[in-house]
């Protein structure tokens, strides 16, 4: 599958989603097939989200590349992910931030969190990724402040606790919007203790972020 992976990375680079050597190398290295249920492994290098069970999906490779590029990840960073799924995006981030960095990744569905832990262990990323079962809309105050925070599910509005868990110069990326099938990808940079710069990158479609500062479970 390595050849298919290299070919997919070449195509998404050509499309402009991959801009830096570190993201290209990480995407070429992390085996996406290891983060899929067996029935979907043959499609690992199709550039699409795929079902992972519990009504959830693994993100499309171009989206993972785009998230990593926007976050400008550096070695040694402390990062928070909301929405582990099966752990693929987590592994790509872990590859970029390296052994001196650490990713805390929160997942609200137990069976997904457990599978992600197994997948990350098998592929060698368990040391610098901690998977936490919980509601990521509250962030993870135990380990704040973070260099980077990103959500792989969409909230109706920006979950309040997240901004204040960023370091100064930290970046928060999250899909936000009230529409079920189309949201805006918002990027927030913390400029000082109380100043945040916000911009929209464009339209995206993510599964809902369900929790205290996200969508209520019963309305879906
Ligand atoms: N990061 C994943 C990947 O690498 O493919 C994508 C996961 S999927 C698109 C989004 C995930 O967010 C789902 O697994 C869902 O259960 C999870 N999720 C939704 N609301 C959440 C919340 N409040 N806290 C943590 N996880 C949440």
**Which small molecules are bound?**
S-adenosylmethionine
CATH superfamily: Vaccinia Virus protein VP39
For the largest sheet, list the strands in their spatial order.
5-4-3-6-7-8-9
Helix tally equals 6
* Poorly predicted regions: none
Mean pLDDT: 96
Rough shape?
Answer: globular
Number of domains: 1
Query: According to CATH, what is the class?
Result: Alpha Beta
CATH topology: Rossmann fold
Report on this structure.
By secondary structure, this protein is α/β, with parallel strands linked by helices. It is built from 6 helices and 9 strands. The chain has helices spanning 2-14, 21-29, 61-71, 88-97, 110-122, 160-163; strands at 50-53, 56-58, 78-82, 102-107, 129-133, 146-151, 166-176, 183-190, 196-204. Strand 7 and strand 8 form a beta hairpin. Helix 1 runs antiparallel to helix 2 (21-29) and helix 2 packs across helix 4 (88-97). The site of S-adenosylmethionine has 26 residues, from strand 2, helix 4 and strand 4.
Summarize it.
The chain has 220 residues and is an alpha/beta fold. It is 27% helix and 26% strand.
Which descriptors would you attach to this protein?
9 strands, binds S-adenosylmethionine, 220 residues, alpha/beta
Mind sketching the topology for me?
Blueprint: H1 2-14, H2 21-29, E1 50-53, E2 56-58, H3 61-71, E3 78-82, H4 88-97, E4 102-107, H5 110-122, E5 129-133, E6 146-151, H6 160-163, E7 166-176, E8 183-190, E9 196-204
Parallel strand pairs: 3-4, 3-6, 4-5, 6-7
Antiparallel strand pairs: 1-2, 7-8, 8-9
Helix pairs in contact: 1-2, 2-4
